[in-house]
Amino acid sequence: MDQRVTDTGLAFVLNGQAVNITPVPGERLSETLRERLGARDVKIGCNAGDCGACTVLIDGETVCACLVPTHQAEGCRVETLSGLVATDQTAQRLVQTFQDHGAAQCGICTPGMMVCAVALLRDNPTPDVAAVQDALGGVLCRCTGYRKIIDAVIATPAAPVGTIGVGASIRRLDGLEKVTGTEAFGDDVAPAGTLEIRVIRSPYARAAFALGDIAGWQAARGGIKAVLTAADVPGLNAFGVIPAFRDQPVFAENLARFRGEAVAAVVGTPEAIRDLNPDDFPVVWTPLDAISTVAEAQAKDAPQLHDERQNNLMCKGFVACGDAQAALAAADVVVEGRFSTGFVEHAYIEPEAGFAQIVNGRIEIHACTQAPVMDLEAMELILGMDRSKIRIIPTAVGGGFGSKLDISVQPYLALGALKTGQPVRITYSRTESMQSTTKRHPSEIHLRIGAMRDGLISGFAFSGEFNTGAYASWGPTVANRVPVHASGPYRIADYWAEAKAIHTNCPPSGAFRGFGVPQSSIAQESLFDELADTLGMDALEFRILNALEDHVPTVCGQVFAQGVGIKACLEALRPAWANEGAAADAFNASATGSLRRGVGLAAGWYGCGNTSLPNPSIIKAGVRADGTLVLHQGAMDIGQGANTVISQIFMTALGVQSTTLERIGPDTDLTPDAGKTSASRQTFVSGNAARLCGDALRAAILRAVNAPSDAEVSIADGDIYVKDSSTTHRIALAGLPVDADGYVFAAVEQYDPPTKPLDKNGQGAPYAQFGYAAHLAVVEVDTALGTVRAVKFVAAHDVGRAINPMLVEGQIQGGIAQGLGMALMEDYLPGRTENLHDYLIPTMGDIPPIESIIVEVPDAHGPYGAKGLGEHVLIPTAPALLNAIKRACGVRLYSVPAIPSKLSAALHGDANG
Amino acid sequence: MIYSAPTSVKDALAVLKSSQPRIVAGGTDFFPSQRAGAQDRNVLDLTRIEGLRGITRTASGWRIGAATTWTDIVKAVLPPAFDALKQSAREVGSIQIQNRGTLVGNVCNASPAADGLPPLLALNAEVEIASTDAPRRVPLSHFVTGVRKIDLAADELVAAIHIPAVPEDMTSAFVKLGSRKYMVISIVMVAANVRVQNGIIQQARVAGGACSPVAQRLPALEALVQGRAVADLVGLDFGDAALFAPLSPIADVRGSAIYRVRAVAQLCRRALIQAATGEK
User: Fold this and answer.
1) Which CATH architecture is the domain B170-277 placed in?
2) Is A574 on the interface with B (CB under 8 A)?
3) A491 and A546 Cβ atoms separated by less than 8 Å
4) Domain extent listing, chain B
5) B31:A116 CB<8 A
6) What are the structural domains, with CATH classification, of chain A?
7) Is the N end or the C end of chain B the one with fewer CB atoms within 10 Å?
């Protein structure tokens, strides 16, 4: 009998509770669970079964809830993470081990990972690594590099947890929410039924367009509450992270400059938005010739993206010292190469999402972001509204890696709420997220490096062209940073480096972990291997010979008297270099088939914080009259651990034993500006502000009883106790006056790293500190197929002082995973790889064991000696892999990704690629 | 808009005639191919139809029902000739996909990179098509006619895949090439079924996928290896392009055409060796 279930409810059991609902035909179970049943612990990353974030159990089997018609759940038992952790002992154990190992960073994939792990452990309580990989391989993670997740599932004993102070591998302070499914990301804040927004985007890379009869279109459809276009932008229809380059419209006017550019947005009921086909929107397109490469952009008669930027050249960066050409002419050997890299997509598992509402006449925006105060500044201009009327309340961020520095959903949310007067929400589809948000810059690099027979570098000439896409975003930063960093962490007296950022009709290229340095590092570290081989020198000893040291000027003429840790990193790899090299030689000597192994090295450095620009962070703290200690922490934790690390630094400076810390923020109403989460600056810059704030709060407490600086401070039962050599003072908090924030003691402190401007030759002091890294990669190449399998990494990182060694390892492993993706598989092609099955990122089966060597060469500017780490972790990875591939099979690749087809062509002697 | 979940093939055929629905079973291709705003079509859900899920022994071989999932195939007890099919099942998407996605859905989706096709071609599979007027059965090689094209009328439904009886001593293997470990669309994949007696290949069936609009058997290659010693497979010359004549690879984001030509030869050798020896 034909069961027509359209009008009748259906029943299933969700987390032990009987539920009865009436979904629409073809509704996805993920949608039902989140919007009808409140199970927001089910995360949606792709709606295509490519990411696994929405994994739930149906009758005990793992499924992607986004691919199950809700009607098929009828009569079934459905379990999600929140239900499992409430009742299932296996899940409860995983809640502990995931925290012990730091297996959740941003936490957006964690529900999917843990649900898969529960299903595995029910079948197989003692899985090995391969079994874990097979069972969890259908869930993508962009943060962790997977190894700590494997450790957590196997329950490898974790390092003992110390107290909250600096140097202790404590659990993340915000970890419990992430492993129990209660963390609220961008799409998790809006109440069900909230009006939704759908952006109308250009299907062409370049097109003129004319909007049609929008009012008539709207009137003919039920449930459409508003249509937003450029005409609805009350302030400036432009945004950009760098004021001098503010060039991207909220809504394009008459001309779309890249595929995916917004031209309008529709606000409507969830039903109306669900039924909306963007192709029906009244707009007439006239496709125009588009340029997609820097070569096309610079051709004569090329279409110009922006009138004021001739030949599509947005800007240049330049650094020179000594005389590069003379040194190259005098060099005993010179190597040269042309390298190219493509677009890399950030591929965080959380697409951009948010919610906005009007509260007491102010607009409140809840969205995922890396830079709440920059969002506020952008919205102030776009809305033409005083900033006191705008509040940015960031949600948890499901991965950022640079792209969530730029605004995305925020203007649509604010404009939608203002025009309708009602709360609104928006979530980008995976394809929208990939089409419209920033990418890593494709690069075309020409590099020549010379050396003398004794191995010392003699001349370095670098020329790089970076495809910055249709709008500026962080392109100027990339152009500036690359010439400063392209030398690598080496002593190079005669240096010339120029980087150009060039517009094309591609998505805007912006910030992505390393700001162009991973691209230049591929060229420089590849040629360093070629130089070492040409000279007949050991590749590691060649690098050590040329490594920067204290008192040796960088290519910008900056001289550090302390803290230069690259040599220590390289020397830390000596044992692995010898052992892994010998093992690979032995493997190859006995190989009969097509497999060959190779070991590769690369080093890297990265200046922490803005380049020669002010870059302050402010941290505030207080003690309430009841003794509660409160930290106003405005530095965005996007998974890297700022909430934990900044708290550890603060508590160490405060020197208060055994108390709990309440953390407020980030929220532009409640937390002072701690700057953006970028440029590896939060541990260093906001960490220093937290240290100063802790010092100041401690000083205020000591001052109250005239105690010496070494007195012991503790808080208990609403009082503060200060014990010095002679006596214990009790400060009764209840009687003290409270300030406007309700604090009896409070402190606000700022830190701004000392830098100096660069002159016309890029000479100056661009950064107060650099961090340093060296990676070793072991690969196995199948020479018959051109496939590459990473076998092992050893990564030495100079972090100055590891505030939390477990989080340091998490950064290293996650950065290596992204570097491996860039090296071996990731290639964003507009119009072709706009989803997570054509655009491939590494899975759990692609990341081998990673041995982290934490090097601590303290930095005088860093809090307790600490240096930044966030970008350093992927800079050496790709060149280390390329160098390993060369040593395995004799082929040097000059472009990434090294997909099997490309490597095979090189092995056959075809043209590269 | 109607969501129909009939319990018999007869009712399902009636729904097909009356409401022109989109068909869903596992949902793993249904949702990704759904366009925004296109949810106004009726849906026919096959998963409640009696007898449509599972693998059964028939007088002439095996019947794999249209709602049979990849995981069902992995878990079924089947002769070694089905090992390639099982191995392909383990390589489709992720376990989450294998738990819902169906083999018949993979066939009907008719992607050039459908992992199920080469093993089924090597098993000489046939497609059982139900219809009110004229139920029929066609060889799989005739059923999939092109990229996203199948020989199925609007009022017909694929009810099952049939595998003719296989020799007890037939062994098989599936080899897939992709750019990462899990959840990867094949660049090239090959299935091989062989019978070996006294170290000599008595019979070989080899099929390659993702190298032509529809996966293809490779009769010339099969002829070449039949009668050869297993030990000779390593060194056998596969250089003659005629061996792979039915294939016509294209270049796409996953690989160049010339790469596919080279890779498919390599994969054929590996699949044959693995099928014959059990060693990877």
Assistant:
1) 2-Layer Sandwich (3.30)
2) no
3) yes
4) 170-277
5) no
6) 1-179 (3.10.20.30), 195-290+349-399+403-436 (3.30.365.10), 443-610+759-907 (3.30.365.10), 617-751 (3.30.365.10)
7) C
